[in-house]
Amino acid sequence: MRYTGMSAVTKSRWFAIESATKARNSIILFIQFSFLSFACSPVQDTNIRTPARELYNQAIIASEDQFYTEAEELFRQLSNEYSGTQLATLAYLQLGELFFKRNNWDDAEVNYRSFLIRNPNSHLTPYVISQIISLNYEKNRYGVFIRERSFDRDMEPNRKIIQEYQRFYLLYRQSNYLEDVTELLSNASNDLAEYEFVVGEYYFSQQAYNSAITRYLYLLKNFPKFERRNQIAERLIDAYENNQQPEKANSIRIILKLQSSQST
After folding, report:
1. Computed from CA positions of residues 35, 39, 40, 41, in that sequence, does the dihedral angle turn out positive or negative?
2. Contact 215, 195 (CB under 8 A)
3. Residue 204: how many other CB atoms lie within 10 Å
4. R_g of the chain, CA atoms, integer Å
5. Per-residue model confidence as pLDDT tens digits over 110-140
6. 4-42 confidence digits (pLDDT tens)
C-alpha cells in the first residue's frame, strides 16, 4: 500500500493531494474533449456571398436613388466575385453609365470598353459605341470652370470620335443612334479642322511656311466639308508665294478658278 508507514495526518494530506490531481486531470480532459467536439461540429459560415442577381438589383436601386458611390461599390463587387458571368459583364456597362452621369469621362470610357471586350456581339453595342462618341465630345467641351470650345486643348477626343464613327457607320448604319453620332461627328470634324487651321495660321505668322503649307494641304485633303476651304486655299497661295514657290501658287489659283466657274 502507498500509505503504509505514514501517520494518519500524512496519509490524509497525500490523499487530498492525489484527489485534487485527479480532479484537475479530469477537468483538463473535459476541456480538451469539448474543444475537439466544437472543432469537429459544423460552423455557420459568416462569409456567404450575396447572390449575383441580388447584388445587381441592389446596385440598380442604389443608382436609381442617386446613391452613386454605393452603386459603384456593388457593381465592382459583382464584377469581381462573379467574373465571367452575364451579370458581371452588365456591371461594366452600368459602371460606365454611373461615371457618365457624373461627368467622369475617362472611367466611363474604360468601363464601356470593358463591356465591349467581354460582349462584342451584344445588341447593346451600338448604344455603347454612341456613348463613347458622346463622352469624347464632352471631353473637349469642358473647360476649367465652364463649358466652352477651346482650340488649345488636346484634340485626341475629336480624333477618337472620327475613328469610332467610322466603326459605327460600317457596322450599324441602320441604328437609331446614327443620326445623333453623325451630328457629333460633324461637330468634332469642324473642331479638329478649326484647330488645324489655327495651327497653320500660327506657323504662317512665324514665317514657317513649309509647316503652314503642310497644315493647309492636310485640311484641304481631309476636311472636304470645312466651311473655310476657300480661305485655306487663299492662305496656301500666300504661303507658296512667300516660300518662293510661285508655280505651286499658280496651280492653286487655277484650281480655284475652275471650281468657281463650275459653281456658277
Report:
1. positive
2. no
3. 20
4. 38
5. 999 999 999 989 999 999 999 999 999 988 7
6. 555 554 545 545 555 555 555 554 444 444 434 434 444
